[in-house]
Structures are given as structure tokens and as C-alpha cells.
């Protein structure tokens, strides 16, 4: 049987909106989904692990990855570089897994341009007030970083209109349910599901 290529899903939303929590809950429910691990020049936050949350690299190493064509997209965000390693994505999609790229909006736009067939989802907070208090509760960031991230959040929310789907993160369960519905519906879109029709028509030829 032909293995259907998995979806490439761009998942964006302002810092502090709860993307990680939603994606962790999704991965716990869906074993057909893989999460891309990005490379970054920012320092690990407490509790983060190299290779699980990010690949933490120096600016020089990041530059080398770009020069060697090892990243699908990259962007600068709040003074640090972030990029999506290409290899694992191609491998997982080829094996039929849906691959989620949790990236900011500049990277999302680059992916959409290079891969128009990708599916893009933007996660919104219930309100800006909720977002601000979530950013402040994350005690690991300094006031300066919080301010930068809030400004970046407002800029990012303006880009949400370029995405295919908008989800409001009112509860994690609801957001996960909606992502699963999107994945399901996207796989049923005609251009992805038409191999079934081809098979039937080929069979019809043999019996007519
Ligand atoms: P954080 O520092 O909070 O982990 O991430 C900051 C922002 O960078 C988030 O919006 C996150 O989605 C985004 N990001 C993480 N990895 C990548 C990546 O590989 N490429 C791009 N363009 N953005 C990324």
C-alpha cells in the first residue's frame, strides 16, 4: 500500500500563549504527529533540555547550519536566532507522520512561500491581558524580555490573518480538539485524498 505523505503544519502564536502546553497535550493523544525540534542561539530556560526542547547552538554554529542548507527556514526573534532543521521533517513526512513546526510568524511566512501545501494554524490568547499575566508568571524572564515579548506579541497577532486557521486557547482540551479536527479535515481534502478515487477508477477499468 502507498504510504501517504504526512502534513506539514506551521503552528504559531505569541510567546506565552501556551503553544507548548497545547502541543504536549496533542502529542499525548496522537502518535501520528511529530514535533520538529528547532535550533536556537538563546540560552536554555530552567527545565529545558538540549535535543528535546531545542538544539542550543552558538551564533557561529547557527550560521554554519544556514550556509550548509540544513535549515528549512530561520528568523531572528527578540535578539536570538531560531531555525527549523530540514532532515527530520523530510524523514517523518516520508514515513507518513504529520510534522508540526512551532515557529514565529516570519518563519511561518517563509514556509508558506516554499511549501504552499503546508497547513498553518495560529493560536490566539483569550485576551491580551491574559497573555501579559502569563508572560509575567513565567518568572524566568527579566522585565526587559517581558516587554520585548509583549511588543512582539502584538506584532505577531497582526500577522494572524495570513494563517489558514485561528484557534483561541481558552482551554487546552478545546484547543487540542480543534487541532485534531483540522488535521482530520485537511487529510480529507480532495487533492490529498484523491488516490482512493484513482484506485477505484483503475479497478473499474479492469472490470468494464
Ligand atoms: P521561545 O524563546 O519562547 O522558546 O520562542 C520564541 C519564539 O520563537 C516562539 O514564537 C517560537 O514559536 C519561535 N520559534 C521556535 N523555534 C523556531 C524556529 O525554528 N523558527 C522560527 N522562525 N521560530 C521559532
Structural class label? alpha/beta
Whole-number mean pLDDT: 93
Helix and strand pattern? EHEEEHEEHEHEHHEHHH
Question: How much of the residues is beta strand, in percent?
Answer: 15-25%
Report the CATH architecture of one domain. 3-Layer(aba) Sandwich
Rg estimate, integer Å:
19 Å
Q: Helix segment count?
A: 9
- Relevant CATH superfamily of one domain: P-loop containing nucleotide triphosphate hydrolases
Q: Which molecules are bound besides the chains? A: guanosine-5'-monophosphate
Q: Name the shape in a single word.
A: globular
Strand order of the largest sheet: 2-7-1-8-9
CATH class of one domain: Alpha Beta
- CATH topology of one domain: the name is Rossmann fold
Terminal residue distance? 24 Å
Overview of this protein structure:
By secondary structure, the chain is an alpha/beta fold. It has a domain at 8-36 and 97-207: P-loop containing nucleotide triphosphate hydrolases (Rossmann fold). The protein has helices at 19-29, 59-67, 86-94, 105-114, 128-137, 143-159, 172-187, 190-193, 195-207; strands spanning 8-12, 33-35, 39-40, 55-56, 71-77, 80-85, 98-102, 119-124, 165-168. It has a five-stranded parallel sheet, sandwiched between helices. Strands 4-3-6-5 form a four-stranded mixed sheet.
Amino acid at each position: 500500500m502507498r504510504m501517504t505523505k504526512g502534513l506539514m503544519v506551521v503552528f504559531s502564536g505569541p510567546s506565552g500563549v501556551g503553544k507548548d502546553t497545547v502541543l504536549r497535550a496533542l502529542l499525548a493523544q496522537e502518535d501520528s504527529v511529530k514535533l520538529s525540534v528547532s535550533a536556537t542561539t538563546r540560552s536554555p530556560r530552567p527545565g529545558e533540555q538540549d535535543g528535546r526542547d531545542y538544539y542550543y547552538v552558538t551564533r557561529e554554529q547557527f550560521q554554519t547550519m544556514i550556509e550548509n542548507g540544513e535549515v528549512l527556514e530561520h528568523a531572528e526573534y527578540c535578539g536570538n536566532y531560531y531555525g527549523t532543521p530540514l532532515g527530520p521533517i523530510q524523514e517523518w513526512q516520508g514515513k507518513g507522520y504529520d510534522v508540526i513546526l512551532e515557529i514565529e510568524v516570519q518563519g511561518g511566512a517563509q514556509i508558506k512561500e516554499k511549501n504552499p501545501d503546508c497547513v498553518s494554524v495560529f493560536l490566539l490568547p483569550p485576551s491580551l491581558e491574559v497573555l501579559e499575566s502569563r508572560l509575567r508568571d513565567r518568572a524566568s524572564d527579566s522585565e526587559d524580555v517581558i516587554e520585548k515579548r509583549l511588543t512582539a506579541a502584538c506584532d505577531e497577532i497582526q500577522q494572524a490573518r495570513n494563517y489558514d486557521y485561528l484557534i483561541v486557547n481558552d482551554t487546552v482540551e478545546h484547543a487540542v480538539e480543534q487541532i485534531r479536527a483540522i488535521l482530520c479535515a485537511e487529510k480529507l481534502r480532495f487533492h490529498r485524498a484523491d488516490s482512493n478515487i484513482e484506485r477505484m477508477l483503475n479497478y473499474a477499468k479492469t472490470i468494464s
